[in-house]
Specification:
Spore Coat Polysaccharide Biosynthesis Protein SpsA, Chain A, 30 strands, eleven-stranded mixed β-sheet, alpha+beta, homodimer, 537 residues, 2 domains
Chain lengths: 537, 537
């Protein structure tokens, strides 16, 4: 062998080794990397095949009885929700003094007139809203919301509620059974859309077909053996989705049953460490949040009054002044925003910065007093399912308001829904005699930080706004109101010539451009909340 | 009559009229004002009487078969979730080059050791976490999550899923029926906890007892008449709660069935008006959000690069510098925070100010290029159920990262859960070949503003943090990642002597106090997320 042949021989051995190793690595890679992973169609739902099947069956179960007469019961029938709704203003019936105080008038607003008719492109915006809403519905669709009716006299026993599996994980399905008379062969089948079935143990004398597949059949001559086998059936979710439900069909000859298995991660807790040691540590539990504009003098009074009672509570201040002034002091966090960015934007900002379990909202012209018992608010939030509790605001005259309202939204069909806001509350809270359950309260409240952050204050609301937050909170927050936790309102009684220039500035900014502001509110009611009209007190 | 007698007579008539009117008003007031409203107990759930009853019945339905043998099927049984979990670090198996690249190592962290054992009061904090979690569970309990099993061979037909009523409103209950052989008297009963039953129409030959009450019985000799009557049964929710479920029992002689009616407001849509006119108007649809600290030069480069492609898109900047510099320009919103308030606090602030349908998160050292196709991101968000889509970040070397991860949380019992984070994704998305579904992505993503605001960036995370957001998003956000939407990363390659003083400042601040930062992260994992340990890649 020449020198070159020898060298090449040595090199080729080395190359060969590396080619072999690389080849092996590539083979391992092929099996390890998930390019064999199936695709998933997450374009918005067109058809749910299981729902179609079930709708047909439902039609069969809910039969009609055309030859049996019935008589409508007016008062009961009237309570049923309709597919349309109206907003009627209240009529003034009595013309006695104090009537307006006792029976506050009901106002009505129709967004189809007030907003749509003055819009440059009413057809376009109508269509767009319908499109956005349609997409929203398709995106929120879940098989867990579909009506399912259990058939009578079915030999099938099955779970109708309560099954949950984490994405791509496995659970046992409890409660499956077949209860029929003895026969030559007993047979049941299971069908899923987003997962597969298997058995975690096998029982003699039962045949299983389709283990590990979307369609599994179990059969055998001995009913008790089949039922024992059914106790070992497992479901594995195979199509990933963070929050959905799989429709399961469980059937035997002549009978079908349907139930769903929720697929999703468990609701993760967001726990706050508040260092509870027998009494409430307000500084560790509560952050005070406010928004300020122009009224630095009032803000200063507020801070001083807070410090009298709560020297170390953190105060978060959102500030959208044109020429911001420094606001300093221990445990004070001052945030500067673009000039005039807005009221709800400021509220959303302040609340987004809170790191304690509870947040207390105050206006920058409040003044704390000995009755401003934050520990009482913490107490009711700790001991009940309330997420937010309002207090009372006392004017210089002594008049104290809790501003409790109830809110309901009636289904309105394509034109949009009807919003109804009324003064009042739902129930008194047992164990807390000065407190009630309502849907909206005054702008002095303490709430669970995580829940308020989830609802948020829509930054699209730039000027006035209050009940809009509670409309967004509807169905998410459990709201209460206690009349014995009181904060004072800095005096609003000023003779016109004694108003300071800053106060005049403030009022001009806040109360001007009413038309622009109303139009913005109406647009939000019409488009964002998909309302047709509202009545309020 | 004297003058005084006359005057008194006239006056007393007047007084008498006013006394009468006042008296009438008081009477009206008494009936109108809800002091007759019943109280509601919203202290946290102790017992659900319906659940106790059902648990007993469940025990009867899911019988045991002690004399039937079974054989465990190992591979299937192993997939079942256990009540405990462990975090095991991966072992280094191969010592070949590039192995670490192909098989990234799995790291494990145990919070019971790393956090609890170094805590000044481990027993106290353990107890507190258990207490907070316990309260959280009691507060989140809903009868809609309880396991219910449908009995086989029951003559009762009833709805098992899909019933919803708004608080204090009324619905018809569909699907109720009794299917049995003819007998002298057919009888069914309905029982509720938070509402009452009624009928909206009456049918001849059917007796009804308890109309308008929590317990209603219907009976009669003619089965078809009874079934026709059952089609007119209504339920009215009477105990207000914004989000709960009433447990309904529907029974006949010898048989009981259970189902729930969800009580709550419908999920209100939050629609955004984006002026869609055939093509995506990026300025109307998207707001770009970022947080900046020290690196004003890089921020300037970012803004200039954005303006090359998107001249009118709003850019929201959260800034917690010690000495903030002005950042101005059209469509730029600059927010000043307290010095060093933090990374996630800044992210939460920026996102809280967005008023468009989508928000694009960028780091302040990114640079837009012709590949930074925001319209592609909008497209996939418009057409699928994704809530968030990540892109790819290209380093100066050409290396492009998508940082896709999958996340799962294993149930761990009292000590807490186990968090597992792995590189990778779940599926390719049909119709979008460069896109996949995952649980976490890189810090360059576009998302639905309302969904991201609902999850939020926890302001308790002050320094480094990334995957923590995706842990909070688990189960809420549907997350995707596309590799063909690319943003450049400003060069990180600097020779030590050529680093600017601002860069040195930045690195010192961000990467210092690692211990303090890690301890904070560990506290959040241990307490807030209630974890025991985690494994990650």
């Amino acid at each position: 062998m020449t020198y070159w042949q020898f060298k090449m021989h040595k090199n080729s051995k080395k190359y060969f080794k590396w080619i072999l190793v690389t080849g092996l690595l590539l083979i391992v890679l092929y099996y390890v990397t998930p390019w064999a992973t199936s695709g998933v169609d997450i374009r918005m739902i067109h058809d749910d095949p299981m729902q179609k099947l079930h709708t047909r069956i439902l039609g069969g179960l809910i039969s009609d009885y055309p030859d049996i007469a019935y008589k409508i019961k007016e008062d009961a029938a009237r309570r049923l929700a309709q597919n349309t709704c109206v907003c009627l203003a209240g009529e003034e019936t009595f013309h006695l003094p104090f009537v307006k105080l006792l029976f506050p008038q009901v106002w009505a607003q129709n967004f189809l007139h007030e907003f749509l008719e003055t819009h440059p492109n009413p057809e376009g915006i109508k269509q767009q809203r319908a499109q956005e809403y349609n997409n929203y519905q398709r995106r929120s669709y879940s098989p867990a919301d579909v009506l399912i009716v259990a058939e009578a006299n079915s030999p099938l026993q099955y779970p109708t509620q309560g099954l949950e599996v984490q994405p791509l994980k496995t659970i046992l399905i409890p409660g499956l059974g077949l209860k029929e008379e003895a026969r030559l062969n007993h047979i049941v089948s299971l069908r899923a859309t987003m997962g597969t079935f298997d058995v975690v143990a096998t029982v003699d004398k039962v045949s299983i077909k389709g283990e590990g597949e979307k369609h599994m059949t179990l059969s055998g001559p001995l009913l008790s053996a089949l039922n024992r086998q059914l106790q070992f059936v497992s479901y594995t979710n195979t199509v990933f989705h963070p929050k959905t439900a799989d429709s399961i069909e469980f059937a035997t000859e002549g009978h079908q049953s349907f139930f769903i298995i929720k697929v999703g991660h468990r609701n993760a807790p967001r726990l706050y460490n508040s260092g509870y040691n027998g009494e409430y540590n307000i500084s560790a539990l509560v952050t005070i949040a406010t928004k300020t504009f122009i009224r630095y003098d009032k803000l200063k009074d507020l801070i001083e009054s807070i410090r009298q009672y709560y020297p170390t509570v953190t105060i978060v201040i959102a500030d959208d002044n044109e020429h911001p002034q420094p606001v300093t002091g221990p445990h004070i966090e001052h945030y500067i925003m673009p000039f005039g960015k807005g009221w709800f934007a400021g509220r959303n900002l302040a609340v987004s910065q809170v790191t304690t379990k509870y947040v207390l909202w105050v206006d920058d012209d409040f003044v704390f007093s000995a009755n401003t018992r934050l520990d009482k608010m913490v107490d009711i939030l700790e001991k009940t399912t309330l997420d937010l509790v309002g207090g009372a605001v006392r004017e210089v005259t002594g008049y104290t308001a809790t501003y409790r309202h109830t809110i309901s939204v009636e289904n309105g069909g394509e034109e949009g829904d009807c919003l109804h806001i009324r003064l009042g509350y739902h129930h008194v809270i047992e164990g807390f005699p000065n407190c009630v359950v309502a849907d909206a309260v005054i702008n002095f409240f303490m709430a669970r930080t995580d829940k308020v952050q989830q609802v948020g204050f829509d930054p699209r609301m730039s000027r006035q706004g209050h009940l809009e937050f509670f409309l967004d909170a509807l169905g998410s927050l459990h709201i209460g109101s206690c009349s014995d936790i009181i904060v004072n309102h800095a005096s609003k009684i000023h003779l016109p010539w004694s108003k300071s220039s800053s106060m005049k500035s403030y009022e001009k900014f806040r109360y001007s451009s009413t038309d622009v502001n109303n139009n913005l509110k109406n647009e939000l009611f019409y488009f964002k909340n998909r309302l047709k009209c509202m009545t309020s007190q």
